[in-house]
Structures are given as structure tokens and as C-alpha cells.
């Protein structure tokens, strides 16, 4: 072996040893329930440097815009109930809720137990044999979803659920036109992004999937005219895809009767109605599903976020039989390796059990009403800063006249131990989406903090 080859081999060995030593150090950290101040500094340093050099430095810059001073480097380390704690031991009330994934709380013990029990027996499935929890979870969903929704397909995320719904709708009728709405957010993979409305997310990836048309959310006349035009030009509508309540659009509630009228239009033109309940589902709005709030049954419902109980990534679509049977002849027409895996199904089953046993949807309605009333009271006298506070259940939006005010409010609340954040489509609105288990005492703390910060903001 040449001298050069020997040197290269020695370098490879040294690199492997260095990487392995680093990995072992990290694994030892993971084992710890608590860390020392020195260890916390090391973790923070590694996190910031590796975000900058290997993840995305843009995220560090974003954190700087929504925090005071050096707090952009706050590193979350543990969580429980309605709160999480950073690596330095500072506790935060979580009013962002991972964009709505912690409906049953952080690290809910029943959900963790179900996942741990399943892990002891089998983590993933073979992909070929029949796996029991997927079948059982599908039956449970048929029981709890509204109307005659019956068959389920399981995914790993919200955007995957939307993709599955769009493909199913295309196979059902062989139509290719979809109607979405302004301010809609359905995900960022190519199909779901085609339904998403914000130009900033869309422009770099144009052209997207053809056939999508956007109309103003809440404008039933424009929706009707779009149906008529599509029919006249031979581009009949396959489906309308809607969030019953727009989440990333800024917590936008539909006008009275709007969703029922959209349902009627879909029936008139032989089109499907897809409800994207990725954010509104699993008790968030005071009912298990927002479609129940408005008494409208879609043909396909999309679920994710809180579906896995804040423990496992999990999602699903549930469809009516006459729609889903498009996939009966070939069950491999749309598949996913990890969707519906045993761990995710165990988490979802336990999550539904907690929601039902603890009546969390009803609790969301009660606590949400109290929360909304308190925020409105706190905002009195600040009409020059706050445009509107609106919401339903524990899905509340605070819209400001200026983006800058929202950023300053987020900074001030984070500094005082409350995590809130803006919505992705409407940057003037910050969301309040805490776990449905949040206590009244924690709600009072959030309201008092909001009032204090609002009084100090001078923009």
C-alpha cells in the first residue's frame, strides 16, 4: 500500500473514531433526565453551531426576530402537561402546541404507555401481512367520524394526508379540477402546495399540479360561479378542498351557512368535498371534528398533527365507501412505508381514548370561551394595536394592525415564559393553540402576560 493510501486510511479511521466518540457523548446526554450547567452550555453550543452549519442558518435568524437578546438560542429539552422546559431549566407555557399537535398534552402518560407496550412487542410491520392495530384504528375512526365516513388510509403527516385525498378524488371521478380558497394552507409537498394559497411558498416551485383554482374563502357566490365556469369549459370539478376553519390563514372562521352551501354545490355538480382537519380535528374546536361544529359531512376528511397524541407522527384520511372503493381493485395504488405503523396506530388509539375519557373536546369549548373572553378584556384600550381576537374552542387568533406588533408581542411573551407564534399565511396574526389540558391557572397567566406585554409595546 502506498504512503498516500496509508495516510488516507488513517484519516478515515480517525474520522470514524471522532464521529463515534461524538455519538456516544450525545447518547449519554439522551439518557440523562437532568443536565449540569456545563452540559447545558455544551448542548446549546452544539445546537446553535450545527443549526448554522448543517441544518439551516435561516432558522437561527428567524428565532432572533421573535426573541429578545440571546434567547434565540433557547434549546428545548423536556416537556410535560401544558409546558416544556429548556435545557437551562426555564419553563414555558406552550400556547403554540407544536402548531396544534399536543391536544392531549405533552407526553401524555396513556399515549406513551400504549407506544411503549407496543414497542416491547413490535415496532414496525412487515408491510405484507395483516397488521391488527391498523385495522382496529380504522374501525374506531369509522365509529367516531361524522356521517358515513368508513374507510381509512394512514399517513405520517398532514401534507401526506392531503396528497392521499387529492389522489383518491382523482381516481374516483377521473376529473382533474380542484377548487381551493385564498389563505388556504394544505401543506408544502407538490400536490398539497397546489392547494395552498400563499404565493411566497408557491412561486419557487411553479408550475405546480395543474387544475387548481382558488376563490376567496367564505365567498359562496364566487364558489358557485367557478363551478359553473368549470362545467361550461369541460373542466368539471373533482373536489373542493377546504379547512373548515382556516388555521395558517389566521384562524379564520367561515361565514354562517357557508360550509353547508359548499356541500350543496358539491352535491349539485357531482363533486367531492374534502375537509382538511389536520389542525381542527381531534377536539381542538370543541367537537371531535370541526365538521361536527358546522353539521357538514365531507366525502373525505384529512387528519394529522394531534392524531398521534404528540408522541408519534401520524395522520389519516377517512372516506365514504363509494369514494374509497376506487382503491379496492388495487390496494397498492397509493402506499406509504411508515403510514399506519404499529407504534403510530397505538398512539392514535390511546389519543382517541384520552379525548373521549376526559371529554377534552367539550373541555376545549369551555376553556376556550373563558380564554377568549379574557384576551378580549385584556385588549381593551389597545384598539390601535389589536385589530381582532377571534376563535372557537382552543383555536384562537390575535390579529394586529401591523406585523411588527405581533413580533413584539411574541418576543415579550416568550421572555416571560409563554410560547406563541404567528401563522404561516397571515403574519399579522399570532395563534393560541395550547394543549386541551391547559389549566385555568395557566390560562390566567397567559392572559395576564398578554395584557402586560401589550401595555409595554409602543409600535
Give helix % range: 40-55%
Separation, N- and C-terminal Cα atoms = 70 Å
Strand arrangement, major sheet: 4-10-9-8-7-5-6
Mean pLDDT: 94
Radius of gyration: 24 Å
Structural class designation: alpha/beta
Give a description of the structure:
The protein is an alpha/beta fold. The protein is built from 17 helices and 15 strands. The strands form 3 sheets. The chain has a 7-stranded mixed beta sheet with strand order 4-10-9-8-7-5-6, sandwiched between helices. The protein has a 4-stranded mixed beta sheet with strand order 1-2-3-13. Strands 11-12-15-14 form a 4-stranded antiparallel beta sheet. Helix 11 (258-269) links the parallel strand 7 and strand 8 (272-276). Helix 2 (37-55) crosses helix 3 and helix 6 runs parallel beside helix 14. The longest helix has 29 residues, at 3-31. The radius of gyration is 24 Å and the shape is globular. 46% of the residues are buried. The model has no long low-confidence stretch (mean pLDDT 94).
Ordered list of secondary-structure elements with their pairings:
Blueprint: H1 3-31, H2 37-55, H3 57-65, E1 76-80, E2 83-86, E3 91-94, H4 97-100, H5 109-121, H6 132-144, E4 149-155, H7 158-173, E5 177-181, H8 190-195, H9 199-202, E6 212-215, H10 220-232, E7 237-242, H11 258-269, E8 272-276, H12 290-293, E9 300-303, E10 315-320, H13 321-324, H14 342-357, H15 360-378, E11 386-392, E12 395-400, H16 403-415, E13 418-419, E14 421-422, E15 429-432, H17 440-456
Parallel strand pairs: 3-13, 5-6, 5-7, 7-8, 8-9
Antiparallel strand pairs: 1-2, 2-3, 4-10, 9-10, 11-12, 12-15, 14-15
Helix pairs in contact: 2-3, 5-14, 6-14, 10-11, 15-17, 16-17
Amino acid at each position: 500500500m502506498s504512503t498516500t493510501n496509508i495516510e488516507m486510511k488513517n484519516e478515515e479511521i480517525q474520522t470514524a473514531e471522532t464521529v463515534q466518540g461524538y455519538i456516544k457523548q450525545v447518547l449519554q446526554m439522551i439518557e440523562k433526565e437532568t443536565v449540569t450547567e456545563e452540559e447545558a452550555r455544551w448542548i446549546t453550543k452544539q445546537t446553535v453551531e450545527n443549526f448554522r452549519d448543517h441544518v439551516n442558518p435561516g432558522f437561527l435568524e428567524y428565532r432572533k426576530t421573535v426573541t429578545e437578546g440571546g434567547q434565540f438560542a433557547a434549546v428545548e429539552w423536556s416537556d410535560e402537561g401544558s409546558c416544556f422546559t429548556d435545557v437551562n431549566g426555564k419553563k414555558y407555557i406552550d400556547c403554540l402546541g407544536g402548531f396544534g399537535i399536543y391536544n392531549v398534552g405533552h407526553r401524555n402518560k396513556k399515549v406513551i404507555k400504549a407506544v411503549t407496550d407496543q414497542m416491547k412487542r413490535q415496532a414496525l410491520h412487515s408491510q405484507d401481512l395483516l397488521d391488527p392495530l391498523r385495522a382496529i384504528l380504522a374501525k374506531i375512526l369509522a365509529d367516531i367520524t361524522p356521517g358515513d365516513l368508513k374507510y381509512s388510509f394512514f399517513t405520517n403527516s398532514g401534507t401526506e394526508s392531503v396528497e392521499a385525498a387529492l389522489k383518491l378524488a382523482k381516481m374516483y371521478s377521473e376529473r382533474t379540477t380542484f377548487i381551493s380558497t385564498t389563505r388556504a394552507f394544505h401543506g408544502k409537498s407538490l400536490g398539497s402546495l397546489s392547494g395552498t394559497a400563499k404565493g411566497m411558498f408557491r412561486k419557487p416551485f411553479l408550475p405546480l399540479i395543474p387544475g387548481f383554482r382558488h376563490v376567496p374563502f367564505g365567498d359562496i357566490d364566487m364558489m358557485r360561479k367557478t363551478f359553473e365556469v368549470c362545467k361550461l369549459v369541460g373542466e368539471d370539478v373533482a373536489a373542493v378542498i377546504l379547512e373548515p376553519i382556516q388555521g395558517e390563514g389566521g384562524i379564520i372562521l367561515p361565514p354562517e351557512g357557508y360550509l353547508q352551501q359548499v356541500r350543496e354545490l358539491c352535491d349539485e355538480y357531482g363533486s367531492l368535498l374534502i375537509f382538511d382537519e389536520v389542525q381542527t380535528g381531534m377536539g381542538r374546536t370543541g367537537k371531535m371534528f370541526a365538521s361536527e361544529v358546522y353539521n357538514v359531512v365531507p366525502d373525505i376528511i384529512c387528519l394529522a398533527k394531534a392524531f398521534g397524541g404528540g408522541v408519534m407522527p401520524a395522520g389519516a384520511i377517512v372516506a365514504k365507501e363509494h369514494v374509497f372503493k376506487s382503491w379496492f381493485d388495487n390496494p397498492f395504488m397509493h402506499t406509504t412505508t411508515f403510514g399506519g405503523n404499529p407504534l403510530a396506530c397505538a398512539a392514535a388509539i390511546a389519543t382517541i381514548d384520552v379525548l373521549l375519557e376526559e371529554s377534552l373536546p367539550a373541555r376545549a369549548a369551555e376553556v376556550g370561551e373563558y380564554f377568549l373572553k379574557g384576551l378580549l378584556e385584556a385588549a381593551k384600550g389597545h384598539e390601535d394595536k389589536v385589530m381582532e381576537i377571534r376563535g372557537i374552542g382552543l383555536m384562537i387568533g390575535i390579529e394586529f394592525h401591523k406585523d411588527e406588533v405581533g413580533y413584539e408581542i411574541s418576543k415579550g411573551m416568550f421572555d416571560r415564559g409563554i410560547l406563541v407564534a404567528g401563522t404561516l399565511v397571515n403574519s399579522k396574526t399570532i395563534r393560541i393553540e395550547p394543549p386541551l389540558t391547559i389549566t385555568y391557572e395557566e390560562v390566567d397567566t397567559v392572559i395576564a402576560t398578554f395584557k402586560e406585554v401589550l401595555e409595554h409595546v409602543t409600535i
